[in-house]
UniProtKB/TrEMBL annotation, chain A:
This is Myotubularin-related protein 9. It comes from the Eukaryota. Residues 508-542 form a coiled coil. Keywords: Coiled coil. SUPFAM superfamilies: (Phosphotyrosine protein) phosphatases II, PH domain-like.
Automatic annotation (TrEMBL), chain B:
This is Myotubularin-related protein 6 isoform X1. The gene is MTMR6. It comes from Echinops telfairi (Lesser hedgehog tenrec). It comes from the Eukaryota.
Length: 549, 621
């Protein structure tokens, strides 16, 4: 197969492996098409299996004939391999470099992965838009499913099925698509059952410098308003940025043409600004020698928590407009594939209890990220150690997960999933044996035939043995809206991701286990007590009958 | 009472500290001899002890009244608006008087009466016995003995009467050494590590100046090192920055010269003095109290306040101390200038790392009693109990509590107590409600007759200990399990639950801790019920074997009674709910000030911009 050409030295003996929290291990290093494997060939020692696609960057060093390769992973771990022999080391390094940057998606591991587990439920069919819509259809008839994008012709980054106002026909949608960036006409993102208010999302309107307008667009978004009600348009760009966009054909909704809508500009950063932020943050976290002052100033300079605050604040604002003011919302930035999705999905976490369950959160990721066309392939191509700095690389999804974690920390009993679930999603978005996060949108996924050729992440996750790891033992369904605090004092560094490889979590893990034990024991006792009470009650009735005649 | 001119003011508003739209609650303000009480329109009461008031400030008159800002030592900040300036002025003056007492006898502890009888009160004072504590450590023994040198506070006024010193140190040596030490605080035993036979000793700086020596002092240090049969050299830790220690030499004080003392290893650890700490905390509070704080301002404020840097320095010093004992088996002598601030921090924290007993509720009380109260940490001056020199006030003890909190964060199962315990102790070092923390040393406390006239805090905390227990606590596998915390900078976090303890909106809305605590308590109840049920069932079985003949008959006639089933269901429902109150989400209640003000503003005017700041929504027109 074609990988063989890339692997010059498939095997090296006497390689020393250094990785966080484990003693150094000596063993045999093997390269396969998709994995870097190190095995000590002894019992009781864990082998290292590293996906090439998880490798973000490598450094090599030589001292005499001893080569050292430092591997920086997308999950932020750093490992070191000491390889005897200059040639072997160079060969290994160049193979890793080539194998970790394959440009053809079809060569990626998910196309070769054969699962060792039994598929109970095929994740590819677990969250069909039709089913999701049924949940709404029960409460409202104002919306309908549209198949206008069946061939991905109207909007290449939308799924084939979208939810739109009932009163707008497909012809109008086609017209609106020409007026919105990337053809992303406004579609339903969330319907608030309590008051019928909705979140819609779209791309920016293509008003340009001469203030183009589109009657169908105006009609479409007005169709979502109840009589006499106002709505809010949340533009995730600052007014300044939005105005500049007009020069490139983009723009924002003019008050005159959308009199029933108020526009609010929030400034959420995008693209390389976020990538730089991640790089700086990880750099700060990885240096344990920082003095307190230096650490705090580096943490500040990374701006990561500022981004978190900005995104959360905007999501809270959307949730407030919906729940407290009873106003519908349209969210967009430029393309409507990044900050728009962050805000729309976080607002749902705040508003909707279902999205705080495991199943509901999976549905949210599927609907609001994958089908909504967040370009995972581009955004997650590289992580914090990359030097290529492509414009399209950006930790948009990681920021979203971090925001969810912040809310989870503030409402630790309101989520069915735990922190590990979020960390798992972060890992799989960047490197995975599953096909779920491959491609940039449904159209690409269709062409790649992912459903036929790869396994869905959800097929693996939704098995009881995996779910138990991701379930929050404290969960108690909570039907309320949960308002997080966005004060800087309330936001924290996500240690589970950013300090994961820099500090031992042994004591924290043990404490977590103890907590689980207490909760399990409680359930067990409750069950026993109930059983005995029942038995006793039965006996007492028997006694009663015995005595009464 | 002569200070109180107005006892009740109506229509007083309280402004939310972080709200940006001047949202307020209206209610009535009462002034009593001991407390300021505010009852709002929902009948919610806010009690503020006069002794907790750190500052009262009257701001310039506004259209809605006269603002009065009260900052408390427990980090509560209340912003009242009193309708009439005269009332405001009266309250302001009264509070100024009431919050700053001139005499100990006017403090709350001397009038506080928790309705205990005399015997109970005395037992409370006897709850902690330091002689017992030294016995627990294994002292006296072949190397260490109780000295009666300070029986009458003749050698050192700020030390306790009972002091433990090396057996081979004679009284003249001790007296000689005390004359060479600042405030007479000569080296004495603070903690004895039985397994390593090594000791933590404490003292004040030597009066060495540039060249002075004292043979007795040298002998005493030698005696300390000889009292350790395993390791002959000992560490002398000067907890001050080197520069400060050197400056002290000019004043005839200073530090030990390694050449004059045999077998010592001298080490500076660089903890700053009380003045630096005071202004550091002040800066920290200014930063965290700012309205509309941005993330960047918060972190650059944390950095420039330097507070976490100081916390790390104290922690590093304690770790150095613990390592000297566990790794090198060496005894350590700790001092700073007077040996009652930084020395207390380092000795107590070091002991806490070494000995799991101090991580229990009772043990932690003993630790505070020993290294802080008894060895003369000047609580009254550091907490500003009386109207005195503001330069003597310093958050030295708070830093100790914060270090302990950081340890509980790193080792969630190592401590029997929880955060609430630390907060409660902090509350009472300032409350002056109990006698424990009044005065600056034991001699002064005896003169004040505190044991006769006031109550001790410790028994009250013990009575309430279910509130302070850590459900995840697991007692360590062996008697001396050492904690080895990491002090990488990223381990240190802003202690929100301390510095924002009254700012509800900033905290998580559900508490893992409370849920687990409640469940753990419920487990105990269930275990008991299970035993009861089992024994009742057993009784029934016994009865039934007696009447086994009729039983078969019975079964055949017994109908499946629907009434019976219903009653069973009812019983199951009656199972105790796990502290529902604790799980209630406050986030969506109308009284919640994160969002409640949002709707009002909406109703008023058509907003142009909606923004969210500080967790509280705001709409500006």
């Amino acid at each position: 197969m074609e990988f063989a050409e890339l692997i010059k030295t498939p095997r090296v003996d006497n390689v020393m492996l250094h990785r966080p929290f484990y003693p150094a291990v000596e063993g045999t290093l093997c390269l396969t098409g998709h994995h870097l494997i190190l095995s000590s060939r002894q019992d009781n020692t864990e082998e290292l299996w590293l996906l090439h696609s998880n490798i973000d960057a490598i450094d090599k060093r030589f001292v005499g004939s001893l080569g050292t390769i430092i591997i920086k992973c997308k999950d932020l771990r750093i490992i070191q391999l000491d390889i005897p022999g200059m040639e072997e080391c160079l060969n290994i390094a160049s193979s890793i470099e080539a194998l970790s940057t394959l440009d053809s998606i079809t060569l990626m591991y998910p196309f070769f992965y054969r699962p060792m587990f039994e598929v109970v439920e095929d994740g590819w069919h677990a969250f069909l838009p039709e089913h999701e819509f049924e949940l709404y259809a029960a409460t409202t008839s104002e919306w309908r499913l549209s198949y206008v994008n069946k061939e991905f012709a109207v909007c290449p980054s939308y799924p084939p099925i979208v939810i739109v106002p009932n009163s707008i026909d497909d012809e109008a949608l086609r017209k609106v698509a020409t007026f919105r960036h990337g053809g992303r006409f406004p579609v339903l993102s969330y319907y608030h059952p309590k008051n019928g208010m909705v979140i819609m999302r779209s791309g920016q309107p293509l008003t340009g410098t001469n203030g183009r307008r589109c009657k169908e667009d105006e009609k479409l978004i007005n169709a979502t308003l109840r009589t006499g009600k106002r709505g809010y348009i949340i533009d995730t760009r600052s007014l300044n940025v939005a105005q500049q966009a007009r020069a490139k054909g983009g723009g924002f909704e003019q008050e005159a043409h959308y009199p029933q809508w108020r526009r609010i500009h929030k400034s959420i950063e995008r693209y390389h600004v976020l990538q730089d932020s991640l790089i700086k943050l990880v750099e700060a976290c990885n240096d344990q020698t920082h003095s307190m002052d230096r650490w705090l100033s580096k943490l500040e300079a990374s701006n990561w928590l500022t981004h978190i605050k900005e995104i959360l604040t905007t999501a809270c604002l959307v949730a407030q407009c919906i729940d407290r003011e009873g106003a519908s919302i349209l969210i967009h930035g430029t393309e409507g594939t990044d900050s728009t999705l962050q805000v729309a999905s976080l607002a749902q976490i705040i508003l909707e209890p279902r999205s705080r369950t495991i199943r509901g959160f999976e549905a949210l990721i599927e609907r609001e990220w994958l089908q909504a066309g967040h370009p995972f392939q581009h955004r997650c191509a590289q992580s914090a150690y990359c030097s290529s700095k492509q414009k399209w690389e950006s930790p948009v999804f990681l920021l979203f997960l971090d925001c969810v974690w912040q809310i989870l920390r503030q409402f630790p009993c309101s989520f069915e999933f735990n922190e590990h679930f979020l960390i798992m999603l972060f890992e799989h978005a960047y490197a995975s044996q599953f096909g779920t996060f491959l491609g940039n949108n449904e159209s690409e996924r269709c062409k790649l035939k992912l459903q036929q050729k790869t396994m869905s992440l959800w097929s693996w996750v939704n098995r009881p043995s995996e779910l138990s790891k991701f379930t929050n033992p404290l969960f108690e369904a909570n039907s309320l809206v949960i308002w997080p605090s966005v004060a800087p004092q309330s936001l924290q560094l996500w240690e589970g991701v950013f300090l994961r490889w820099n500090r031992s979590s042994k004591y924290l893990d043990e404490a977590y286990e103890e907590m689980v034990n207490i909760i399990e024991y409680n359930k067990e006792l409750q069950a026993k007590v109930n059983l005995l009470r029942r038995q006793l009650a039965e006996l007492e009735t028997e006694d009663g009958i015995q005595e009464s005649p | 009472m002569e200070h109180i001119r107005t006892t009740k003011v109506e229509q007083v508003k309280v402004l939310d500290r972080f709200s940006t739209n001047n949202k307020s609650l209206t209610g009535t303000l009462y002034l009593t001899a001991t407390h300021l009480l505010f009852i709002d329109s929902h009948q919610k009461e806010t009690w503020i002890l006069h002794h907790h008031i750190a500052s009262v400030e009257k701001l310039s008159l506004t259209t809605s009244g006269c603002p009065l800002v009260i900052q408390c030592k427990n980090f509560r900040i209340v912003h009242f608006v009193v309708p009439r300036e005269r009332d405001c002025h009266d309250i302001y003056n009264s509070l100024l008087q009431l919050s700053k007492q001139a005499k100990y006898e006017d403090l709350y502890a001397f009038s506080y009466n928790p309705k205990q009888n005399e015997a109970e009160r005395l037992r409370g004072w006897q709850l902690l016995d330091l002689a017992e504590e030294y016995k627990r450590m294994g002292v006296p023994n072949a190397h260490w003995q109780l000295s009666d040198a300070n029986r009458d506070y003749k050698v050192c006024e700020t030390y306790p009467r009972d002091l433990y010193v090396p057996r081979i140190a004679s009284k003249p040596t001790i007296v000689g050494s005390s004359k060479f030490r600042s405030k007479g605080r000569f080296p004495v035993l603070s903690y004895y590590h039985q397994e390593k036979e090594a000791a933590i000793c404490r003292c004040s700086q030597p009066l060495s100046g540039f060249s002075a020596r004292c043979l007795e002092d040298e002998h005493l240090l030698q005696a300390v090192s000889k009292a350790n049969p395993v390791n002959r050299y000992m560490y002398v830790m000067d907890t001050r920055p080197k520069l400060n220690a050197m400056a002290n030499r000019a004043a005839g004080k200073g530090y030990e010269n390694e050449d004059n003392y045999s077998n010592i290893r001298f080490q500076f650890v660089g903890i700053e003095n009380i003045h630096v700490m005071r202004s550091s905390l002040q800066k920290l509070l200014e930063v965290s109290g700012a309205k509309g704080l941005s993330v960047n301002d918060f972190y650059s404020g944390l950095e420039s306040a330097g507070w976490l840097r100081h916390i790390k320095a104290v922690m590093d010093a304690a770790i150095f101390l613990a390592k000297a004992i566990t790794v090198e088996n060496a005894s350590v002598l700790v001092h700073c200038s007077d040996g009652w601030d930084r020395t207390s921090q380092v000795c107590s924290l070091g002991s806490l790392l070494l000995d799991p007993y101090y991580r229990t509720i009772k043990g932690f009380m003993v630790l505070i009693q020993k290294d802080w109260i008894s060895f003369g940490h000047k609580f009254s001056e550091r907490c500003g109990h009386l109207d005195g020199d503001p330069k003597e006030i310093s958050p030295v003890f708070i830093q100790f509590l914060e270090c302990v909190w950081h340890l509980t964060e790193q080792f969630p199962q190592a401590f029997e107590f929880n955060e609430a315990f630390l907060l409660q102790i902090h509350e009472h070092i300032h409350s002056c409600q109990f006698g424990n923390f009044l005065g600056n040393c034991q001699k002064e406390r005896e003169e004040l007759k505190l044991e006769e006239k006031t109550y001790s805090l410790w028994p009250f905390l013990l009575d309430d200990q279910t509130k302070y227990q850590n459900a995840l606590y697991s007692s360590p596998p062996h008697r001396l399990t050492v904690l080895e915390p990491s002090t990488v900078s990223f381990q240190f976090k802003f202690w929100r639950s301390m510095y924002h303890q009254f700012d509800r909106t900033l905290h998580p809305r559900q508490s893992v801790f409370h849920t687990v605590m409640a469940m753990s308590a419920q487990n105990k109840q269930l275990e008991k019920e299970l035993r009861d049920l089992e024994s009742k069932l057993q009784q029934h079985t016994n009865k039934q074997t007696a009447g086994v003949l009729t039983k078969e008959q019975l079964h055949s006639v017994r109908p499946d009674s629907p009434a019976l089933k219903a009653s069973l269901c009812l019983k199951e429902q009656a199972l105790l709910p796990v502290a529902d109150a604790l799980r209630t989400i406050e986030g969506s209640e109308a009284t919640d000030n994160r969002y409640s003000d949002y709707a009002e503003t909406f109703a008023k005017a058509e907003p142009g911009v909606v923004s969210l700041e500080y967790g509280v929504a705001r709409m500006t027109c």
